[in-house]
């Protein structure tokens, strides 16, 4: 794995999940691997889990991690090529990426969708530009269209609790007062399908994800029907793709509550966090013993550590000339 931008950088998902299970048993076992290695974590947007779990994962491997709040403290960056930089952006990604890559061995970046221009967001302008101009491997800490570290943590969580090889997993839209990106839903759909799970996606009309993301998942507009026989309920809000970035509905009847969970196969409840209580999910469901939200968040350390360990081991193999 040279960089970790999306599921397309994962050649062997089973192996990645085995590496994760191994790390979970003994998180400090590979502390020697990251000696004299460093990672710079660039954030253009807020974070609790991604920032802290990345720092913990790096520390567990003996690496130095540095956090750069480009959104708040750094020079404002220009990502497009060929523009006259006569406005508020003081530095181009070409120079910034080259400089950061000369200081660190790995660079992570968080850059959310702006939700104004589908083509711009889905071209992954910022992630692609960093990857193009940065001389070291790049890690996606949530981009415009994907959150692969979250999806890996979600799979690690499901793998622990699943009772069948092919659990029935339901990704359900839930209401939210603000327009949110599709990144988490996109990655959850792609990763769970790659893992071979039986995926159902349920949402109101107008919230269809792209065809590539839907893949072979069953789309069910009746949420109650979708919940039947579910082993895992994964709630997430996202804004519309077809009416790009718009909030088309805040229908409270889509909130996950106990009555809906009673239609499932005693399903586990999942959400990536942060979550708005009694908007996305009722207190009773998120506080129930079947709620996995804290375990998912804990597994964010494991997922980042798995990615870093894979990259560090590969670098060692390269330097030994394998
Ligand atoms: N789930 C997630 O990525 O959380 P943060 O936005 O707090 O990093």
Show the helix and strand layout.
Elements lengths: L12 H13 L12 E6 L5 H12 L3 E6 L7 E2 L12 E2 H11 L2 E5 L7 H5 L2 H9 L4 E3 L7 H14 L6 E6 L9 H12 L3 E5 L8 H4 L3 E2 L3 H5 L4 E5 L21 H4 L6 E3 L12 H4 L6 H27 L3
This protein binds phosphoric acid mono(formamide)ester.
The site of phosphoric acid mono(formamide)ester (CP) has 9 residues, from helix 2.
Structure in words:
- The chain has helices spanning 13-25, 49-60, 93-103, 118-122, 125-133, 148-161, 183-194, 211-214, 223-227, 258-261, 283-286, 293-319, and strands at 38-43, 64-69, 77-78, 91-92, 106-110, 138-140, 168-173, 198-202, 218-219, 232-236, 268-270.
- The chain has 322 residues and is α/β, with parallel strands linked by helices.
- It has two domains: 7-144 and 300-319, Rossmann fold (3-Layer(aba) Sandwich), CATH 3.40.50; 150-291, Rossmann fold.
- Helix 1 packs across helix 12 and helix 6 packs across helix 12.
- The longest helix has 27 residues, at 293-319.
- It is globular, with a radius of gyration of 20 Å.
- Phosphoric acid mono(formamide)ester (CP) is lined by residues 47-50, 142, 150, 272-274.
- Phosphoric acid mono(formamide)ester binds next to helix 2.
């Amino acid at each position: 794995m040279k960089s970790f931008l999306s599921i397309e950088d994962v050649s062997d998902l089973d192996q990645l999940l085995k590496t994760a299970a191994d790390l979970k048993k003994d998180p400090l076992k590979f502390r020697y691997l990251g000696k004299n290695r460093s990672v710079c974590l660039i954030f253009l947007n807020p974070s609790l889990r991604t920032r802290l779990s990345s720092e913990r994962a790096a520390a567990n491997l003996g690496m130095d991690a540095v956090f750069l709040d480009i959104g708040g403290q750094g020079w404002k960056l220009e990502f497009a090529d060929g523009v006259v930089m006569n406005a508020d952006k003081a530095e181009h990604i070409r120079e910034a990426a080259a400089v950061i890559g000369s200081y660190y061995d790995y660079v992570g970046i968080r850059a959310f969708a702006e939700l104004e221009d589908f083509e711009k967001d889905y071209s992954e302008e910022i992630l692609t530009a960093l990857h193009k101009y940065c001389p070291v491997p790049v890690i996606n800490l949530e981009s415009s269209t994907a959150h692969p570290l979250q999806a890996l943590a979600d799979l690690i969580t499901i793998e622990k609790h699943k009772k069948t090889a092919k659990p029935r997993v339901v990704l359900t839209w839930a209401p939210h007062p603000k327009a949110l990106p599709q990144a988490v839903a996109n990655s959850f759909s792609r990763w769970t399908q790659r893992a071979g799970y039986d995926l159902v996606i349920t949402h109101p009309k107008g919230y269809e994800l792209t065809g590539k993301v839907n893949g072979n998942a069953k789309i069910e507009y009746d949420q109650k029907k979708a919940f039947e026989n579910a082993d895992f309920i994964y709630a997430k809000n996202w804004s519309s793709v077809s009416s790009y970035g718009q909030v088309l509905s805040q229908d409270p009847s889509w909130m996950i509550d106990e009555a809906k969970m009673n239609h499932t196969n005693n399903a586990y409840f999942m959400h990536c966090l942060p979550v708005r209580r009694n908007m996305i999910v009722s207190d009773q469901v998120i506080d129930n013993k079947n709620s996995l939200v804290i375990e998912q968040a804990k597994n964010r350390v494991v997922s980042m550590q798995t990615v870093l360990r894979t990259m560090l081991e590969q670098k060692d193999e390269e330097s030994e000339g394998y």
